[in-house]
């Protein structure tokens, strides 16, 4: 905010909004609600999402990058898992593909929506955006591998339907957890500099014959700003007390989002049916809902010329959505009353393949313009259109 007074107002608003959002839950949970309640719940849901963004950014600023990007990625995954499990319990046969539809939607929305809008906003403000190709490329490679293992291969197994057998699902879940854990260790420990913002006004150095980038005398190792402070204006990080308060309010905000989204789930399903859209579009709406906090945070980072943080959020969310959601749903499927169909259809596989190819071409140079952002957003539009008109 431009004014300390406005910032103080914002801080107070984000403190009481999540608490206020919890109040309607006892009166609306598990009940058929009317139009007035739908409007009220929708407004409170939006306020909770914005509050979650604010508190996540405070915590992220305190812990520094790339740890900060993990906070929101894990948080929205908790929301996603809670919504999927809740809807699968009460969704009947139509819920067998809900996990697949939601996770695939999250992958496309993050890899094309969050990445695309971040590149476009960043390039519109700063002409050309730069980022670490090493870390971003590693994140994209993990996303592609996880998506193939958990969403593509089930379509081609000998099991009836696009599903894994029990042993195959166990292998996929353990592999996904191990790969996600390996990435987190790589991102936060040994190669942390690969995921930090590139130093401003520095050109990316050319790789030497050995494959390592040449470093300039003025640029730290990895060509990044490793000052632990990710605010564009180099503001002082918040105190431990402020960060702990924001962490607590972030948890309250997430509980409010999960609860209110569950209340809204039936109206969403009814609205999808009334519009004549396929039931799988419910997964798209869930993904759009739970990724709203990360999308806003990524746009804010891109406007501050911190594109690396935006990409960390985008690809990190895609990775968490697969690497944490699928194993959790795999365990929950033991008690769920419906089958778990994870395999994608042919149209979805083609969209995933194009997204992977365009993503690789975007990441490899280590810098991008409005064109790359536009390409990803067109792919997002194609996904949304085909999801509504399969």
Automatic annotation (TrEMBL):
Entry's Pfam families? Na_Ca_ex
Q: Molecular function (GO) terms listed?
A: potassium:proton antiporter activity; sodium:proton antiporter activity
What InterPro entries does its record include?
Answer: Alkaline_pH_Ca-Antiporter, NaCa_Exmemb
Q: Which domain of life is it from?
A: Bacteria
Q: Provide the residue span(s) of the region labelled Disordered.
A: 207-238
What keyword terms does UniProt attach to this protein? Membrane, Transmembrane, Transmembrane helix
Main localization (coarse): membrane
Transmembrane intervals: 12-29, 35-55, 67-91, 103-124, 136-156, 168-186, 243-261, 281-301, 313-336, 342-364, 371-388
Q: Where in the cell is it found?
A: Membrane
Q: How is this protein situated with respect to the membrane?
A: Multi-pass membrane protein
- The record places domain Sodium/calcium exchanger membrane region at 35-188, 246-387
Query: Would you tell me the Gene Ontology cellular component terms?
Result: plasma membrane
Annotated protein name in UniProt: Ionic transporter y4hA
């Amino acid at each position: 905010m431009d004014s300390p007074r406005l910032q103080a107002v914002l801080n107070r608003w984000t403190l009481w909004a999540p608490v206020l959002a919890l109040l309607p839950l006892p009166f609306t949970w598990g009940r058929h609600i009317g139009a007035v309640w739908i409007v009220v719940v929708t407004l409170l849901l939006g306020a909770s999402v914005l509050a979650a963004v604010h508190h996540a950014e405070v915590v992220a600023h305190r812990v520094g990058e790339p740890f900060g990007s993990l906070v929101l990625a894990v948080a929205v995954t908790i929301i996603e898992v809670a919504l999927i499990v809740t809807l699968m319990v009460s969704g009947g046969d139509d819920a067998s593909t809900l996990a697949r539809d939601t996770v695939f939607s999250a992958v496309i929305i993050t890899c094309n929506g969050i990445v695309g809008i971040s590149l476009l906003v960043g390039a519109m403000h700063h002409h050309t955006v730069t980022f670490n190709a090493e870390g971003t490329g590693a994140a994209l490679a993990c996303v592609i591998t996880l998506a193939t293992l958990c969403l593509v291969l089930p379509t081609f197994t000998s099991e009836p339907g696009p599903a894994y057998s029990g042993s195959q699902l166990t292998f996929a879940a353990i592999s996904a957890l191990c790969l996600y854990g390996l990435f987190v260790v790589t991102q936060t420990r040994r190669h942390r500099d690969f995921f930090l913002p590139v130093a401003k006004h520095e050109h990316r150095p050319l790789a030497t014959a050995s494959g390592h980038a040449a470093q300039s005398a003025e640029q730290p190792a990895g060509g990044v700003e490793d000052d632990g402070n990710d605010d564009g204006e180099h503001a002082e990080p918040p105190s431990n007390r402020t960060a702990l308060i924001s962490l607590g309010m972030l948890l309250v905000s997430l509980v409010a989002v999960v609860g209110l989204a569950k209340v809204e789930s039936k109206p969403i399903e009814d609205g999808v049916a009334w519009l004549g859209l396929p039931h799988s579009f419910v997964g798209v709406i869930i993904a759009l809902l739970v990724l709203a906090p990360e999308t806003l945070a990524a746009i804010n980072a891109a406007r501050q010329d911190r594109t690396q943080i935006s990409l960390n959020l985008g690809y990190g969310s895609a990775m968490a959505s697969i690497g944490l959601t699928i194993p959790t749903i795999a365990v929950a499927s033991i008690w769920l009353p419906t089958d778990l169909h994870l395999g994608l259809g042919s149209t979805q596989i083609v969209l995933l393949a194009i997204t992977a190819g365009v993503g690789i071409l975007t990441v490899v140079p280590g810098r991008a313009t409005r064109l790359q952002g536009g390409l990803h957003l067109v792919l997002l539009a194609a996904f949304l259109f085909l999801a509504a008109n399969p």
